[in-house]
Design goal:
By secondary structure, the chain is α/β, with parallel strands linked by helices. It is built from 9 helices and 7 strands. The longest helix has 29 residues. The structure holds NADP nicotinamide-adenine-dinucleotide phosphate (NAP).
Length: 259
Amino acid sequence: MNLNLASKVYIVTGGAKGIGAAISKTIAAEGAVVVVVGRGKEDNIRIVDEIIKAGGKASYFTAELSVAQACQDVINFTAEKYGRIDGLVNNAGINDGVGLEKGSPEKFFQSLHKNLSHYYNLAHYALPYLKKVKGNIVNIGSKVAVTGQGNTSGYAASKGAINALTREWAVELLPYSIRVNTVLPAEVWTPLYENWINSLPDPKEKLEQIVAKIPFEKRMTTAEEIADMAVFLLSDRSSHTTGQIIYVDGGYTHLDRSL
Ligand code: NAP
C-alpha cells in the first residue's frame, strides 16, 4: 500500500524517544519530512542523525512544550522552513503520578500543562497551515483515559480530555476536511514505561503480571505497532476516518479479563 506521504511535512512531539521516535522513523521511511520536537536537544540530534543516515528527511526543534509560546515557536519554525504543515502528531506526555491524595492543586494544574495544554496549543497554532492542505491531526492517548490507574489524576484527566477533544475537533474541523483521530496504547516498552515500572515496589513481578494479562500473544505492544497505525491515520489511505479512538493494545482494554 502506497501511503502517498512523499513531499509532505509532519510534526511529531516527543519524537525522539519511545513511541514518538518510532512514529518519526516511520514517517521518514515513507518519504515525508519529519520535524522532531522535544525538550532534549541531544535526543533530538541523535534521532534526526539516525533518520538522515537511513536516507530520510528530518529536522528538529528543541522545546519544553508545557510553555505555550514554545508551541507557537514550533509551528513558526516548521512553516518558515518548509512552507507547509500536513499533519501534527501530538504525542509528548508523562505519567507523572499526581494523585488525588498525594498530589496538590498546583501539581495537578502543572500536570495538565505537561500532558494536555500543548495538544490544544499546537493544534490551534497549526490550524491555518492544516486548512491550506486538508491536513490532519493524530493524538496519542492512553488506556488510563478509560480504565483509571490510581495515583495519577493529572495524567488521567489529560488523557480523558484528549479523547473528548478528538471528537470535538473532528466535528469543528469538518468544514475544512481536516481529520482528527487518536491512537490509544496500553502497554508499550519505552523509556517512560521503564521509569514507571521501576517506580513500583517489585518491578519484575509487576511486569510479568501485566504481560500475562495482555490477551493477544501475551506480549507488550511495540512502539512500531503504534507508529504503523498513527502513520496510516496521517495518510490519505484513511481518508474517511475521523473522530476515532483506536485501541492498539492487543485487546488489553476491552477483551475478557479472564482470558
Ligand atoms: P517516552 O519514552 O518518555 O518518550 C516521550 C518523549 O517526549 C521524551 O523524549 C520526552 O522527553 C518528551 N516529552 C515529554 N514531555 C515533554 C514536554 N512537555 N516537552 C517536550 N518534550 C516532552 O514516552 P512514551 O512511552 O513513548 O509515551 C509517548 C506517548 O504515549 C505519551 O503521550 C504517553 O502518555 C502515551 N502512552 C504510552 C504508553 C506506554 O506504555 N509507553 C501507554 C499509554 C500511553 P524526556 O525524555 O526529557 O522526558
